[in-house]
C-alpha cells in the first residue's frame, strides 16, 4: 500500500507540474515582451551592437589573418562601418531638411502634375481631390499669424535638441560595445566554455558558438556584400536617369533591403514620389520605380537565394511577424535586427532538446537540427572507432567453415 501511495503522489506531483508549465511559459513570454518594451532605450543599442559585432566578425578575422593584432583589427572594422554610416547620413540630412522647407511647393507641384492625369484616368480624381484639400490646409496654416509659426518651429527645434543627445549616446554605446565584443571575442569564448561542468555540455556549448558564428556572422556579412551591390547598382541607375541625390537613394535602397517584405517596397514608393515631383516627362517618372523593382526582383529571387538560403532558412510568417513586432517595439532598428535575432534563437534552440519545438516552428523546410546533425564534430571530439564491415563472400566462407 505504501508503494502505491508513493506512486500516486509522484503521479499527482508530475501532473501538477505539467499543468503549471504552460501558464508559466505564457507568463514568461509576456514578461520578456514587457521588459523588451520598457527597457527599449537600453536594449536597442545593445541588440544593434551584438548584430554589428557578428556582422564584422569575418572582417576582423580577415585582418587578423593579415597579421593585424586583434584590438586594432576590431577598431578598424568598427571605424570603417562608422565612416560609411556617417557618409550616408551626411548626404541624407541636408536633403531631408531642404524638402521639409519646400513642403508647400512640393505639394503644389504634385497637384499640378496630377492635374493632367485627371483627364485620362478616372481613378486619379479622388487622389487629386485629396491633394487639393491638403494644399488648402497648407495655405490656411501659412495664413495664420506669424507668432504661431515661430513657436511651432521653436518647439520642433527643441524636440530635436532634446532627442539628439540621447540618440548620440546610444550610437556611441553601441559602437563601443561592438568594439569590445570584437576585440575580446576569443577571450569570451574561452570563458564561456569554462562554465559547464560536464564535458558533453562544453561540447554542446562549443557547437552552439560555432554555429552562431557561421550562420549569423557569415549570413550578415553575405547580406552586407549583396546589399552593397544593390546600393551601387541603384545609384548608377538613378544617376543615369537624372534623379538628384542618387547616391543617397542608392544607399537607402541597400539599407532598406535588410528589412524583408517591407523595406524595399516602402523605399521604392518613396523614390517614385520623389521622381514624380522632380521630373516633367513621364518616361523618366516611370523609369525610376521600374529600375528599382528590377534590381530588387533580381536580388531577392536569384542572388540572395543562391548565396544565403543554404545558411539561413526561416519560416516566412515568423520573419514577417518578428519584423512587425520588433519594428513596433524598437522602431527601424528593431526591424533591421529582427531577422538576425531570429537566426540566433533558431541556432540556439537547435542544440537544446527542450526548445526543439521552437526550432521546428522557425524553420522553413526542415528543422535546423537535421542540418546541423550532418556537420562534422569539433576537432576536440574524437569519434569512436568503427570496425570495417566484412564483405559478404568472406562471411559466407566463415559460416561454411564452421
Kindly describe this structure.
With 402 residues, this protein is mainly α. The chain contains 16 helices and no strands. The chain folds into 3 domains: 155 residues, no CATH class; 91 residues, no CATH class; 60 residues, no CATH class. It starts with a helix and ends with a helix. The relative contact order is 0.08.
Number of domains: 3
Largest beta-sheet details: none
Rg over CA atoms, rounded to whole Å, is 29 Å
Helix content: over 70%
Q: Tally of extended strands? A: 0
Strand content: under 5%
**Poorly predicted spans:** 146-157, 367-374, 376-384
What's the rounded overall pLDDT mean?
A: 75
Short description:
This protein is an all-alpha fold and 402 residues long.
Task: Pick out its properties.
mainly alpha; 0% strand
Detail the topology: elements first, then pairings.
Layout: H1 2-38, H2 40-65, H3 70-101, H4 103-117, H5 124-142, H6 146-183, H7 185-193, H8 199-241, H9 246-256, H10 263-278, H11 282-307, H12 316-330, H13 332-350, H14 356-362, H15 368-373, H16 392-401
Amino acid at each position: 500500500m505504501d508503494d502505491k501511495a508513493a506512486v500516486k503522489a509522484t503521479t499527482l506531483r508530475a501532473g501538477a507540474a505539467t499543468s503549471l508549465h504552460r501558464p508559466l511559459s505564457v507568463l514568461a513570454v509576456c514578461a520578456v515582451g514587457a521588459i523588451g518594451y520598457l527597457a527599449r532605450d537600453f536594449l536597442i543599442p545593445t541588440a544593434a551592437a551584438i548584430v554589428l559585432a557578428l556582422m564584422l566578425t569575418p572582417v576582423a578575422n580577415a585582418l587578423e589573418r593579415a597579421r593585424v593584432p586583434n584590438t586594432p583589427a576590431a577598431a578598424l572594422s568598427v571605424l570603417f562601418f562608422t565612416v560609411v554610416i556617417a557618409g550616408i547620413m551626411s548626404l541624407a540630412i541636408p536633403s531631408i531638411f531642404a524638402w521639409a522647407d519646400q513642403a508647400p511647393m512640393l505639394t503644389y507641384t504634385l497637384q499640378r502634375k496630377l492635374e493632367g492625369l485627371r483627364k485620362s484616368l478616372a481613378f486619379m480624381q479622388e487622389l487629386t481631390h485629396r491633394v487639393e484639400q491638403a494644399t488648402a490646409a497648407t495655405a490656411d496654416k501659412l495664413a495664420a499669424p506669424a507668432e504661431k509659426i515661430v513657436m511651432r518651429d521653436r518647439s520642433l527645434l527643441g524636440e530635436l535638441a532634446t532627442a539628439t543627445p540621447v540618440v548620440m549616446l546610444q550610437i556611441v554605446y553601441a559602437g563601443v560595445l561592438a568594439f569590445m565584443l570584437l576585440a575580446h571575442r576569443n577571450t569570451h569564448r574561452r570563458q564561456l566554455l569554462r562554465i559547464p561542468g560536464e564535458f558533453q555540455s562544453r561540447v554542446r556549448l562549443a557547437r552552439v558558438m560555432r554555429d552562431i558564428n557561421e550562420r549569423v556572422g557569415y549570413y550578415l556579412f553575405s547580406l552586407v556584400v549583396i546589399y552593397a551591390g544593390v546600393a551601387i547598382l541603384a545609384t548608377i541607375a538613378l544617376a543615369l536617369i537624372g534623379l538628384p541625390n542618387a547616391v543617397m537613394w542608392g544607399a537607402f535602397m541597400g539599407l532598406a533591403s535588410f528589412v524583408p517584405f517591407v523595406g524595399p517596397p516602402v523605399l521604392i514608393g518613396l523614390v517614385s514620389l520623389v521622381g514624380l515631383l522632380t521630373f516633367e516627362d513621364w518616361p523618366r517618372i516611370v523609369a525610376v520605380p521600374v529600375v528599382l523593382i528590377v534590381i530588387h526582383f533580381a536580388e531577392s529571387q536569384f542572388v540572395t537565394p543562391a548565396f544565403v538560403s543554404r545558411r539561413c532558412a526561416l519560416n516566412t510568417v515568423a520573419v514577417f511577424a518578428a519584423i512587425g513586432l520588433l519594428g513596433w517595439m524598437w522602431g527601424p532598428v528593431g526591424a533591421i535586427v529582427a531577422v538576425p535575432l531570429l537566426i540566433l534563437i533558431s541556432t540556439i534552440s537547435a542544440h537544446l532538446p527542450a526548445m526543439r519545438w521552437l526550432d521546428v516552428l522557425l524553420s522553413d523546410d526542415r528543422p535546423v537540427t537535421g542540418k546541423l546533425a550532418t556537420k562534422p564534430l569539433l576537432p576536440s571530439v574524437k569519434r569512436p572507432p568503427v570496425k570495417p564491415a566484412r564483405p559478404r563472400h568472406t562471411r559466407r566462407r566463415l559460416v561454411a567453415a564452421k
